Amino acid sequence: MKAILLILFLMAPVLSFAQEDTLWFDKEWKPCKNKTKASFYRLPEKQQGGYLIRDYYLETNTVQMLGFSTTKEPLHLEGKCTYYSPDGKKEMEGYYKHDVKTGIWTTWIAGGDSTVVNEDKIVVVKKPRIIKKGPLLYDPDHPFSVSARGKAIGFFIIEDTYFLTFSLGPELMYRKHSLGIDGSWFRWRYERDNSDDVGMYSQYELRNWLHLDYKYTFVAFDPAMIDLYFNVYDKIGNYQMWYDRYEDYDFGTRDMAFLESTAKGTFNEPGLGFGIRKYADGSRFGIDCSANVGYRFTNNNERTVLSATETAFRDHVKGESFEFYMRLNLFYNFGK
């Protein structure tokens, strides 16, 4: 009779209309959008300082875990917590402090008609560090996923040197591999001042390019939520350079004809690098940062104004150089 009353007590929240929205989880306790793919579900009940958490087995509608958490998902458990088997019997019970097991934990082990109770003293149990040979969010049942990535950044590096950059594009991921493509826009501005720190003119450099890359994710760390990868890339784009003379500055008798000089051209930069993909806790948002070395090929047409009466033209001026390249993107992975 007592067992029946206990089950009814634990099942009561299922029928309560006062509960908040149901959260669904698959067999690996990953959140899913609806019941069709779920193996567990959660009914969080708002209380002072957090939530009373009741997790249920979907197949049997019996309680899987009963405890208190300061958050609904991901959980941050505090105080007494009890885990149950699908038939409603206790499996394990103990206390959490700051989401870490502490004190004495009791385990019930069924054997025939009897139950053995083990008590283990736990001083500090750290969350396990899981190392995966592949992306953190990789799901073997759904190996394909798509991410949107991009950025918009603008600031100055040192006095009178500024830059502004935008990028946006998709990234297709399959198992440990990913292919990405995005459009990028990057502008430098170098301001030239006189001895009194008054601006005279600015020099601009503008690059637009298509960025293609392949990444191989070789390891992931959980709960750090970090992927490590190697990548190869190619940047193909256009280059422009020009000057902007400040109309309100008096140059006097100085010949400033060179401010009419311009340059236009194309570039191609293949390269390789190493990167880190860091996810925000409990979400698919993250930041992707890589350090790269590329070899740039340029082909420019240059117009250099030497004086008011003399201009030099140089077409198809080719150049080659090594380039160190730091790449930063924000991303959102849409998952399966």
Q: TL;DR of this structure?
A:
With 336 residues, this protein is mainly β.
Order of helices and strands: HEEEEEEEEEEEEEEEEEE
- Count of all domains: 2
Helix segment tally: 1
Intertermini distance: 45 Å
Secondary-structure map:
Blueprint: H1 2-15, E1 23-25, E2 31-32, E3 40-47, E4 50-57, E5 63-69, E6 77-84, E7 90-97, E8 100-111, E9 114-122, E10 130-132, E11 144-158, E12 161-174, E13 177-193, E14 199-222, E15 226-245, E16 262-279, E17 285-305, E18 311-333
Antiparallel strand pairs: 1-2, 1-3, 3-4, 4-5, 5-6, 6-7, 7-8, 8-9, 10-14, 11-12, 11-18, 12-13, 13-14, 14-15, 15-16, 16-17, 17-18
Describe this structure in words.
The protein has 336 residues and is mainly β. The chain folds into 2 domains: 2-122, no CATH class; 131-333, Porin. Helices cover 4% and strands 65% of the residues. It has one helix at 2-15, and strands at residues 23-25, 31-32, 40-47, 50-57, 63-69, 77-84, 90-97, 100-111, 114-122, 130-132, 144-158, 161-174, 177-193, 199-222, 226-245, 262-279, 285-305, 311-333. The strands form 2 sheets. The protein has a 9-stranded antiparallel sheet with strand order 2-1-3-4-5-6-7-8-9, covered by helices on one side. The longest helix has 14 residues, at 2-15. It is elongated. The two termini are 45 Å apart. The relative contact order is 0.10. Residues 1-19 have low confidence and may be disordered.
